[in-house]
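Issue 218. Parser rejects a valid record. Input:
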Amino acid sequence: MLAIEILSIIELVFFFPALLAAILVVYKHGTGKRLGWRFLVMICLFRVIGGICAIVWAHTSSNGALIAYEVMNSFGLSAIIYTALGLLHRVEDGMGGRGVSFKVFRVLALPGLAGLILSIVGATNVLGNSSNSSSFSSGMAELKAAVILFLTVYVADVVITAHAFFNITYVQDGEHRLLYAVTVTLPFMAVRIAYSLLCVFLNKHNIFSTWNTSALPILVHGLMGVTMEAIVVVIFLFVGFMTASISRVPGLAPPTTDGKLHGKAERKVRPPLYDLGARSV
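Output the parser choked on:
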């Protein structure tokens, strides 16, 4: 059995039950806008599809399965950083005038969309036309650009997390754990992004590669890629089950912390403004 098959089976064994758990989390919190929980389903779904594609590729050497597998890796990276962004959006929105504007989150949806498009085009050029040196070069450039765009969103996650901590007294009751969960996952996301950067920039495909079937690159992929995503999923699933669902309605009283009103007492809580999931992944 190839190393890629072993890794894929491990992915399926973990991410398929996680997919079911993520669906339960979405059911608990609802499918309303800006909640971020739907990205949990996407992470698990992308990994399940990727695992299936890898097994098909190992048995058939199909370029289509290989391209799909590579695309799912990029989609998984995008989904974990946008899960964090979606949860931060919920936290910041509850802070009223102290929170980051929803327009910032709207803008941050665009790099993810562009990154996904570049990932698809890049993977197709690199793996679908590997004998064509110009296609390979352009494909690698597109993959590099995609990872840089994902890195941009990750940096935004870090900055917004720091902003929330600087204004933590304005965070609503029950949502501190969301902020803590995002904070805990950031180092694991950093390793995952570092792995993608090494794959496209270092040019050492005998170590850092998602399409090399040798044991060493598969092991590195499993540790720096799949394992990091699995840890992030576990943390977000846990906080998803532990956090109460919310329903934001225009005209409700402003958020409180320890029973104290924050912001102007007459402020109305904004209704859901933007569906982050509609623009990315």
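Fixed in the parser; the record now loads. The helical segments are 3-29, 38-60, 63-93, 102-128, 133-166, 176-201, 215-242.
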